[in-house]
Amino acid sequence: MIRSELIQKLSEDNPHLTQRDVERIVATILDEITDAMASGNRVELRGFGAFSVKKRDARIGRNPRTGESVEVEEKHVPFFKTGKLLRDRLNGDEG
Prior knowledge:
Blueprint: H1 3-13, H2 19-38, E1 43-45, E2 49-56, E3 59-62, E4 69-72, E5 75-82, H3 84-90
Antiparallel strand pairs: 1-2, 2-5, 3-4
């Protein structure tokens, strides 16, 4: 599902909200998650999962084309861990 499909589905499920309102709600939620992660915080949505940031240390990598050693800088990457309810639902365990 892409963002526009999510907005369309939420608009259909909530006819009292305009599509523009739903777009703002979705944008606000995603912006808040992004801002929290950029600040180094963890975001947990019970039953769905948790978003966090993991640090990858600097290392020596290889250029796949030439085989030459290359320094790869330290970086921070987003990480998502599924919640138990989501994991159970994906595996067919509704209970």
